[in-house]
């Protein structure tokens, strides 16, 4: 830069050789180059620029550690003794050469500022958080090394060159201008960083606002949850408060209905007793016994039968007389006419006898129907008597849940009540087991073990053709209750008493359902033998589905039992008409398996088809045991009527195979084609 200035000066010095000395002219020239022009020549804009240059030089001098009084007087003072005649020494600028010099200097300054900015950005990227504020506060400071801007490094490099006195004041002033330009470039980088910080602050503010909204929503949700929890607690409290009232209302309604049913049942029994008969007390000496006394319907039937019998005897007597008279007159001349009269009268008598027979058959059918009604009446009378004598007949609520209604039946050691579950809102059957006070402790413990074993077997059984066991609980030290599924239909025993002979189609579907339940029992990990299949243990629900119940004598087949079966430890128990021959072997402990149930189902099927049991039908259990009736039952005989298919007879023969080894088990007989409804 100084070399260009000297060249420019030498080009103008040839025209001013007659002026002042050369040192004086150089001093004035340096003053003019830094803006020291005459006030008469300088314009207001030039004066303002001159002030800015002086202030820049002053600040640069302070920044680089030079005292203000060390500056040349021509640069510090704005007054000069040569201002008045400075115009004659004013050098006209060579615009082309100055433009080249300025462009070159500007390019170097921009390049240096870019390099400085790149270094600063790389150093700033390694800092986080509060360092941004430190950089922001440090930019523009000249006295602190840590607080310099992006142009400070270039300024530091030029400061050493600037303070060298050999370069002259002109070169120093241009170096100061270069530093000033680099500081402006650093301010530009600072501006972009501030914009980035401002953008980040805006994002942080947006996130903080979003966080505030989320917290508010969370607070609202928590308030709603607390409100809902409070409402739920109130509802539970209300439910807990209303539950006894609701149970009381339901139980009262059920009790009122049951009372009405009891009254209706007793009224019907009284009416049927007048029509069909009643149980009376007969005294023979010192012995008092009960005997049946026929009602008016049976009396009327007996009267009709007697009349029909008398008419039949009368007609038969007249017919005999007619035949005798015909033989006496057989020798007469009018034999032909007499013969016609005899034939005519004989035909009349025959017609009358046929009419009497039809009437007699009608009366006998009515009598059979009345006998069935009589049997139902006797059972209902027995039920009412047992209900009246039961200690649970006052509509108790057991276990704070089961409302007892009416008695369904009574066995040897238990009573079965129809009840309503006030929690699940369904009808159930409560079987009440009572231990007699006069029993010994051993007998009581044996009965309890028996009931517990039945419960443990029954509680795990879930199948459409097996009655469910819902619950078990203790009532008092001598009484406990098992809660069973309620079947509103009759049992098979009641059905057979009402209709002794069932059509083969109906009997077959009942057997199929029973076998489906037995297959379920034999496909479990622990197989179960029912051992007490009989008509009373087959129930029907409201839809007519058959369900097996009463697992009191059931046996659990252990895994280590062989193919021959398990030992029968309760020999003598069960219903003898439905047990196979191996259960009556007395010389050794019998081995039983599911083939016991196959035999029982065969007896049931035979009874449904023919109206009687195949072995020992008219015998008592004691007589069956005494006369070895079942042990001698080696062959099945079928009556001629009613008509039954050969497939049904063959199926019964397979079920009633005498040899236990040859008899099929449950899983085998269930595959029999007779039990399948798939058309082939």
From TrEMBL:
Residues that coordinate or bind ATP: 431
Gene3D superfamilies, per the entry: Transferase(Phosphotransferase) domain 1 (1.10.510.10)
UniProt xrefs under InterPro entries: Kinase-like_dom_sf, Prot_kinase_dom, Protein_kinase_ATP_BS, Ser/Thr_kinase_AS
Region feature Disordered, mapped onto this chain: 1-24, 63-95, 121-173
UniProt keyword Cell wall biogenesis/degradation, yes or no: no
Ranges of Low complexity composition bias in the record: 10-21, 66-78
Naturally occurring in which organism (per UniProt): Abeliophyllum distichum
Keyword Kinase (UniProt): yes
Keywords for the protein's UniProt record, in alphabetical order: ATP-binding, Coiled coil, Kinase, Nucleotide-binding, Serine/threonine-protein kinase, Transferase
Domain Protein kinase: 402-675
GO molecular function list: ATP binding; protein serine/threonine kinase activity
Coiled coil: 190-241, 298-325, 353-387
Polar residues compositional bias, start-end: 160-171
Protein name, as recorded: Serine/threonine-protein kinase TOUSLED
Taxonomic superkingdom: Eukaryota
Positions of transmembrane segments: none
